[in-house]
Hints:
Low-confidence stretches of chain A: 1-21, 195-201
Number of helices of chain A: 5
Strand content of chain B: 15-25%
Number of helices of chain B: 24
Distance between the termini of chain A: 50 Å
Distance between the termini of chain B: 87 Å
CATH class of the domain at 145-285 in chain B: Mainly Beta
Mean pLDDT of chain A: 86
Shape of chain B: elongated
CATH topology of the domain at 145-285 in chain B: Jelly Rolls
Low-confidence stretches of chain B: 1-32
Oligomer: heterodimer
Order of helices and strands of chain A: HEEEHEHEHEEEEEHEEE
Mean pLDDT of chain B: 91
CATH architecture of the domain at 145-285 in chain B: Sandwich
CATH superfamily of chain A: Glutaredoxin
Structural class of chain A: alpha+beta
Shape of chain A: globular
Number of domains of chain A: 1
Amino acid sequence: MLRCVLSLALTFATLPLLAQERPTYGVGTDGRKISSLAAPGTKAIVLFFVATDCPISNRTFPEMKRLREEFVPRGVRFWFVYPNKGEQSEKVAQHQVAYDAGGEAVLDVQGKLVEISGARVTPEVSVLVPDGTAGWRPAYTGRIDDRYVRIGEERSHATEHFADRALNAALSGGRVETATGTPVGCGIISSKGTAKGDSAR
Amino acid sequence: MNATVRVHVAAAVAMSGIVLAASHNGWETVYASAEPVTWRQQIAPLVYKNCTSCHHVGGSGPFALMTYQDAKRWGGLMKTVTASRYMPPWLPEPGHTSFEGERRLTNEDIELVKAWVEAGMPEGDGSTPTPPVYKSDWVLGRPDLVLEMAVPTEVPADGTDLFENFVLPVPQKGTRWVRAMEIKPGSPQVVHHANVILDRTASLRRAHPNDWQKGIPGMDILVDSGESFDPDSHFLFWKPDSTALIEPEGLPWRLDEGNDLVLNMHLKPTGKIEHVRAQIGLYFTDKPATEHPMLLQLEHDAALDIPSGDAAFVIEDELKLPVSVDVLGIYPHAHYLGKRMEGWAVLPKGERRWLILIKDWDINRQSVYRFAKPVSLPRGSVVHMRYTYDNSANNVRNPNSPPVRVRAGNRSVDEMGHLWLQVVPRPENQVVGVDPRMELERVWMEDRLRKNAHDDIALYNLASLAMMKGDGARAEELYRRSLERHPDDVRTLTSLGSAMEASGDWKSAQAQYRAAAAKDPNYSDALFDLASIDLRHDALPEAEQLFRTLTLSRPEDAAARNGLANVLLASGRPGEAKREFDQVLEATPDNFDALYGSARIEVENGNLQLAEPLLLRAIAVQNDKDAQRLLALVYAGIGAPEKALEHLQSWQRLSPTDADPHRALAQMYSQLGRESDAVREQKIVVTLSPGNAGDWNDLGVIEARAGDLSAARRDLQHALQLEPGNEAVRANLRKF
């Protein structure tokens, strides 16, 4: 009972803050602006940085879909972020349906989500956790798993599931490990310029 | 890379003020000018030459690189993958062998891409380079025959790569020669590579009656090449930049009625469910092959037993060539643990010649490599392969995590170690009537047997070779060795019968065929061979019953129906026989046996005029000595001696060591009053068959007619020495 009360109190406490700032994180495939990444009470937000034309990003979709289906019931909000300049709503919508129809796409037209997360390539994951009154902060940004070692070198199966681990840690209140290794994929070409560490590895 | 591009890059380098300095490892680029490398000047030509064959809209590359905007989008990636030499995909090390279509970038090319990206990927000035044009349709125009997978196959979104085999039956009559083939994989970004295997006997389809259309899993497949020695073989390989595979002049490949093409495909999940439905386009030529290649394989799968964690496990094989060959192409093959691949030849004088060196094998980029010029290897050269495998956890491609002990096998988690060579025996090997590839096959199979004493394929093929040489005893021994491990194998049981028959022991052969037929009453080869031996040895009731069984189960089996007709003919039932021959001719008007058999019936019925056209048709299909002989008899019978002579001569040419055609020619010349020709032919008869008193008698008579009485008396005396009691000879001696 006590836990419920505290939870409610926290939720109410964050609402005014989100309402005041109402930042724009991007646009949905229907053209509406995304001013809120998550409803009150959300325990974590996952941003998957993807692209319509990146083969490694595409091949990682089944793992991203698996994570979405596993963690949505546990209070995690998922976004498939299309950060590249030149991505078109209609094509993104078709792509999202083809690869994970249950996922929700956002076009990061201003590079806001790239800026928040520090993502460099597609595919890459950023796990955002509540940050007191400041909203959300990235607890983990980096590789989803270790399937790809570098371009042209891949394992048949991933042996390390970094995004899965980070999410479990975030949800359990444990320490989220710092990202290791270099994400492998296609460099993000954001509207704010090429992301730091652009070249895909 | 070819010379044209080298020249082009050198010119570009000069224009942009880049200084090249030699190092121990080749050329290194030092940038001495602030003038940047640009898309228009250097990068577009390089990309158009090396990248866009895959990276165009609709191509197999995951994105296009046709325009400046495309390239700028992917510049970072281009820099990375060219520096690592992941792209363009080309595994053989340079400086060892020269291959057709080499796609290895020079160090200068790689430096150019790096410099361009680091300079901010400027487009540059000057005219916009013209991109190449890629057709989405068949490159060589509409094919003569298009085969398509019966149903699309579904590739799941995720999981490990798939290796599937799809059977495409060839709906054609007769034999065609294929000068070019193009595979359209349907979904080029899903198909990593494909091989087409020619299944001469539709064996895979028969072995998988329920799933041959939807795909049979397996990285490597074996097909049954049938009972005849038919080593013609080609590399029919597709990789993502392949267009039409055009065979060299004189080397089209043969496609027979009843053949299947098996499309062996490596399919890679893309992240979403895909459907693949490939097509194969074939282009025919009227010109049959003038050169006959075969594929030779070095391998040592029996030695593949790789301990988990072993980072440098080695297998080796070698093959000494019994004939001189030209090597046209090479196809190295391993699965995911293969690392270093070496193939080379040591020539008889000790010279070592590289065939291929791959330092970092990657199954995803495998290919057939065709030599820029055929590599000539003289007789006595020894071809070697040496493959190294990495079964440690450090091998990222290791499909087993943690590593496990790995042996040879057909699944992707198993391993293989094969080095295929396409060779053509050199002309100096050619002996009329002898295929030098038999010797190559023999040493290849003996090598397999040396590595694995229980290799059934080697035992069977060596036995078949022994049969072709007429060595029934050796074949019998090899078939018996194979049967030790597979005593119920009905095919080998039947072949053992053939070996016994070749050894002259037809009664044992007959019993063996009966045993094989009893083991599997549906094995048609055993029934057919038993029926045939019965026919030859007058066991006509059993032969008739067996041939009837075969024709009932397979009404289209012309050989069985002809066999039945011949049994009926031998049983004195020409009317029934004719009905069977007619039935064959209705379905296949060019069937030699039915034409010849029908002609025999007409001759026996005295209808020589009807026999003539049948025999002419038969000879047009197959220049056969018996048909020539019978036609000569027909012409002699209808009073056309010159035509009779012509066909007797044809018969003689087809039977150069047989006395019979000379005997007939001597009689025909004698009847025509051409006594000197008759004497010549009869002298050949007694040379070929010196112990026959009758032949010496005939020679004496012909010589007497020619006016040479002393020679006649001498040869009649000789006949009498051979057969003192021969009254005809005595009478002739009295006459002359």
